[in-house]
Here is the input.
Amino acid sequence: MVKKGTWVCVTKTLLEESERAAGIPEDTAKTPLRMWVNGFLQEDAEIGSDAVIYTKMNRRETGVLESALPTTSVDYGDFVPEILQIGASARELLYGGAK
Here is the structure.
């Protein structure tokens, strides 16, 4: 049970597959358009149940309670060694050598 007032994440489907715009890529068209919103839970709720939240901007949103105390994880993919050379190459081109 997640208690009222807890910082949570809710999700909801904005468009089903059949409602997606024509002309979008096939793999995108086969996927519902979903949104995730963080906010403060307004009533005690279980993960997976419907919930009401208020965002930091005091916007009311409803959705399925996805997680409590959500964290942000960003992944830009695997390391690309060639990127290490970009700065040196740019300096060489612009200034004729390392600075």
The chain has two helices and four strands. The longest strand covers residues 7-15. The helical segments are 26-29, 83-95.
